[in-house]
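Handout, section B. The chain below has 632 residues.
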Amino acid sequence: MKRKLLSVIVGCILCLSCFTAFADGAEKVEIQFAVGDSVLSINGQNIEVETPYIVGEGTTLVPLRVITEAFGAQVDWDGTTQKITLTYPDVNIVLHINSKVAQVNDHNETLPEPPALSANGITMVPLRFISETFGATVGFDGATSRVTVTKEAIHNDTVQGKTELAKTGDSYFKWSIDTPKNMSIDYRTSNGDSVFYMDGYENRFSVTANYSNPEKGDIQEALSDLKDLAAGTTLMKAETGKDSQGNEFAHVKCKSKEENVELKMIYTKKFDYIVSSVVSLDTPKEDVAKIDELFHSFSTWDGSGEDVYNLSTVDPDGYYLYENNKFKLSVRVPAYLCLNENSQEENVLEFKSKSYEHQNSRCSIAIFSKTENCTAKKLADLDKTSNCGRLNPNLTTFEQLQNYTISGISGLRYGYTVKNSVNDDKSFADVFFELGNYVYNIAVETSEKDTAIIEQILPTFKVEKLSRDEIGDMMRNDPDFSRPLRVDLKSVSFELPGSWQEETNQDISDKSGRYSAFDRNTASLIMFEIYANETAVPAATVMNYVKDSMLKDSAFKNTLIDKVEGVTLNGVTFQKMQLKSVSKDGEILYATIYIGVSKGKVIQITLLEPELFYSGKTGLKVSEVLTNMTVK
């Protein structure tokens, strides 16, 4: 719960905006500056900006945010894809750095010069194109090299100028608020579970709906979490109670030297809501009062009636249409799947589940440049071969690779199921196809009970051919597992396969040390523990102690798979034990433990393998590691 709350606050703080001339109530905006001058005037007020400059055949590039936000437009920047999205009443513009193609509403236009990043990392755009698309007039005085932009104000007193209704809400996530009079939507997640608003003073307000966690704590624990988040600020209020609809809530208000922060957690049967506001201390009192009224206007809503402007894009079947303009694709996904905006991989779109009921579901779309070694057939073969080799053969059933048509394009598809002895079984489907210069892989994962969503998602996928000049190269970055991991401790030295990566290394002495490594291929963990054996305790005695301790461990249900046996490897006699370990939340791990005594020390090696990868063909064989281990 605490991580969810932190993400909301961080999101609010990071959703920054710039100076907005229309926010001050001006009936007309006039922008004046001289090319080459870093001082720009908006309605007579001078502000210093990145210096505008001329490129190509007389195209003036200016800082994007200052110019557009002077008009009251909403600006979104995606640093990963270098995409700029401008939202203005009746006009939506999508731009990309270094691309002359601009999408204006439902059509493309060609820019005289592409947007660019200045040496200081500031986004610069063609002045005339942006301004005139927004309906402004651009004048240029050749004698003085002075540019004048004028635009009559558009009164944007409601949600992005779209409604006059008194209430705004979401019928799927079941909430409503008073329609903001001095704020517009700054950002909304793909499924709409979080909505962030901002005004011209950089004040923020947000609503986040989380699917209710059946194992959540009570409302007092929620209050404690909120108070922890307020640590380091001056606490003004901390309370719990019930709202007018009988919903329990926890409420905290605090302030720092720069802003007031207010947070409220509301519990309902299906959703738990987090409402937040962050208000600068420099904000005029009348605007503070409006945001306070907005904060306290939040209420749950059953979705009925015609007096609420509905933000929801979820259809009656519980799905929404995701569209990506850059990659010219769309897909219909369940409302509980939300695009992971934190991914740094531009060419991988991953939708993760926000619902505890459907926590095993996810969907991903990966796009790669087509090369001799990266075709749909080769990717499909590689993917299936890899999964067949690393997954537990006793739990998995694979389908044959077969022809499959998606979005009218011939491709390949295979699927497999994974049985789970404790939790729900899982189903997987992978589709591979080529279009133009690119190869696509669509993967859907879900619980066995939700298998139907696979056939609800895949047939809705639509895509158009991409231009390589616009998109560029997107190569697969497969890890290189060819080089082994060589470990040289003071007490022992050994090798692990290339897929293993060091986690901890406490190389203390020739008779004391700890080392652990993690397998990036199977999520397994191996641990080496070396300690002095000054009294020459036999390995069997040490193993009996370890066995008894693990079988009595109350945190896990540990079961001995096979009797303890002695094995001699590389001249050292080891005691070997295998256990099946089940945690309280149902996670199953298999532990293989070797304990040997050599040269005055005890050597203990423990391999932990998740059930899904246990006994897979590519799994680590500890005996092979020990056969080549050198005891110093």
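Note. The mean pLDDT is 86. Compare this with the example in section A.
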